[in-house]
C-alpha cells in the first residue's frame, strides 16, 4: 500500500510524520537524498531535517544521486524502508534522478510499501509532471532535463510553502497560471499531506 508524507518543511512537521508513519514494524533507517539542494545557496533545511530524523531514532544514510553511481543508488533504494527526498531545485533533482534511471525504481518501491518522504522539491516530483514549478524554481539549473515528466505517484499536484516567505508570490503565480489544468494541494510550512493507499488528507 502506498505510504507518502509530503511537507514544505520537515523540521516543522516531524511530529506529524512520527504520528502517521513511524512504526515498530520497520527498522528505523532512512536513505536521505539531499541532491536538490546541490544548486541552491540555502541548505540549512538539510541539517534540520537530518537532526529531526535522528531525534526520532532514525539512522540517516546520505545518498547524493548526482555523485553516486547508478548501481550504488539503486542498491540503497532497493534496500530501504524509508526514502527521504529533500528540497531544493525541483528541475535539477529530476534531472539527476533521470540520469541514474531511478524514477521507475522509486515508483516500484513505493508500490511495494516503502515509505516516501518528500520535502518541497522532493514532494513536487511525486506529480505526473513538474512543468508547473517554473515560477518557483529556475529550470536553467537543469540544462540536461529533456522532459518534465516525474514520478507520477499521486493524482494531484503538491504545492508547498503557501503564504510563506519567500515563496508566497510564486505559489500565487502557479495557481493563477496552471490552476485550470492542475489539481493543486497547497500547504504551508506547518502542514503536511498524508497519502495512505487511496486516502489523501491534509493535516
Q: Quick recap of the structure?
A:
This protein has seven helices and nine strands. With 203 residues, it is α/β, with parallel strands linked by helices.
Account of the protein in words:
This protein is globular. The chain contains 7 helices and 9 strands. The protein has one domain: Class I glutamine amidotransferase (GATase) domain (Rossmann fold). 32% of the residues lie in helices and 19% in strands. Strands 3-2-4-5-1-8-9 form a 7-stranded mixed beta sheet. A two-stranded parallel sheet has the order 6-7. Strand 8 and strand 9 form a beta hairpin. The model has no long low-confidence stretch (mean pLDDT 96).
Give the SSE layout.
Blueprint: E1 3-7, H1 14-21, E2 29-33, H2 44-55, E3 59-62, H3 70-79, E4 82-85, H4 90-99, H5 103-111, E5 115-119, H6 121-124, E6 157-159, H7 168-178, E7 184-186, E8 192-196, E9 199-202
Parallel strand pairs: 1-5, 2-3, 2-4, 4-5, 6-7
Antiparallel strand pairs: 1-8, 8-9
Amino acid at each position: 500500500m502506498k505510504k507518502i508524507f509530503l511537507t514544505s518543511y520537515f523540521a516543522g512537521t516531524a511530529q506529524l510524520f512520527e504520528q502517521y508513519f513511524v512504526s515498530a514494524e520497520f527498522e528505523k533507517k532512512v536513505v536521505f537524498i539531499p541532491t536538490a539542494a546541490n544548486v541552491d545557496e540555502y541548505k540549512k533545511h538539510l541539517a534540520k531535517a537530518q537532526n529531526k530524523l535522528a531525534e526520532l531514532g532514525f539512522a540517516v544514510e546520505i545518498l547524493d544521486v548526482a555523485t553516486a553511481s547508478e548501481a550504488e543508488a539503486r542498491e540503497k533504494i532497493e534496500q530501504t524502508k524509508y526514502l527521504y527526498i529533500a528540497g531544493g531545485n525541483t528541475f535539477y533533482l529530476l534531472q539527476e534522478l533521470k540520469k541514474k534511471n531511478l524514477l521507475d525504481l522509486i515508483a516500484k518501491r513505493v508500490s511495494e510499501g516503502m515509505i516516501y518522504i518528500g520535502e518541497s522539491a522532493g514532494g513536487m516530483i511525486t506529480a505526473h509532471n513538474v512543468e508547473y514549478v517554473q515560477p518557483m524554481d529556475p529550470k536553467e539549473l537543469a540544462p540536461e532535463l529533456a522532459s518534465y515528466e516525474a514520478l507520477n505517484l499521486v493524482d494531484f499536484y503538491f504545492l508547498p510553502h503557501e503564504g510563506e516567505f519567500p515563496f508566497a508570490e510564486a505559489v500565487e503565480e502557479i495557481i493563477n497560471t496552471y490552476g485550470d489544468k492542475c489539481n493543486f494541494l497547497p500547504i504551508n510550512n506547518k502542514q503536511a499531506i498524508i497519502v495512505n493507499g487511496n486516502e489523501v488528507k491534509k493535516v
